[in-house]
Amino acid sequence: MMGAFSLPAAPRRQRGIAVVMAILIAALAASVASFMMWQQQVWARQVENLTSLAQASAVSQAALEWTRMILAEDLKSGDIDHPGEIWATVVPALPVEGGSIALALTDQQGLFNLNNLVRNEKPSEGDIEAFQRLLIALDLKPDLANAVVDWIDLDSEAMSSGGAEDLDYLAMQPPYRAANQPLLDVNGLIRVRGFDAEAVARLRPFVTALPTPTPLNVNTAPPQVLAAVFEGLTVDAAKSLVVREGKYYKDKTEFRDRMPKGGATLSDQTFGLGSQYFLVTGIMRFGRVQIINRALLARSGDRINVIWRKHGDS
Questions:
Q1: pLDDT tens, residue by residue, 160-190
Q2: SS3 call for 126
Q3: Where are the strands (E) in the chain, listed by range?
Q4: Which of 4, 26, 92, 224 is most buried per CB count within 10 Å?
Q5: How far, in Å, are 23, 25, 130, 164, 259 from residue 12 at the CA level?
Q6: Count of CB atoms within 10 A of residue 184's CB?
Q7: Measuring CA to CA, which residue among 127, 87, 131, 91 is closest to residue 278?
Q8: Distance CA 104, CA 283 (A)
Q9: pTM above the 0.85 mark?
Q10: C-alpha closest to that of 63 among 30, 105, 112, 17
């Protein structure tokens, strides 16, 4: 009787390779599945972020229109601007569908306008001296004022002591040229020779960059700026001039009368009681996304124009 038919036993080495291959295939399958799940999560998060960005953009536009309306309404009550008005109220984080928004309007003419350093295409000595006083008060080198003048003015002749023109900037790595035009915003200082991030951050609360020369609004100016603009006025003395607790200057004579005796002569072109330029800042949070939008607004007659808008993550 013939024995039962049976397959020859596979060599032990071949059985080991088969087991290894099975384990490898299982590992690859698990890796592919994990990668696909990760890709799906990334895609879902990207969609969520894009949705949040779209929501933030829509809310930002609505907030901008609201602030324009507030400034237009404010003008109906007169041309004096002070911290007691509705526009100066900081709006805390308010809930909106799917997120929140916080808003703040700040008067830019209560700050030192860097573009005042060059008027009618010529350096303005009085403004340069005022900016130097502000730099000294902030423990920065006063010669930085000359570098800013050269950055703004149209000529290629460097100011003495700290000035810089094309030849200086072309020697840098990487090389570039002086702008020879007004600053668009305070961030532009980072390209001016002598400035670094720390210096710009120290100046930021006290300076602005507006497209036209502007008088200082003494109703909204901090003491450091008042002391810089009005020669002979110390920061401590300027603190007594700062508007607070709902009070404000209703005419220039009132401000002059409160100035310390023997102070600087106050030109009508140097200061005012109202403002044309305002900065609106909106902080929006939707899901994991936080967006900070800023816009410079110019009030001209009954029109509120947007000079520039900037968007960015915080």
A1: 889 999 999 999 999 999 999 999 999 999 9
A2: helix
A3: 91-96, 99-107, 112-113, 118-119, 122-123, 207-208, 216-217, 271-272, 277-286, 289-300, 303-313
A4: 224
A5: 17, 20, 92, 82, 102
A6: 15
A7: 87
A8: 9
A9: no
A10: 105
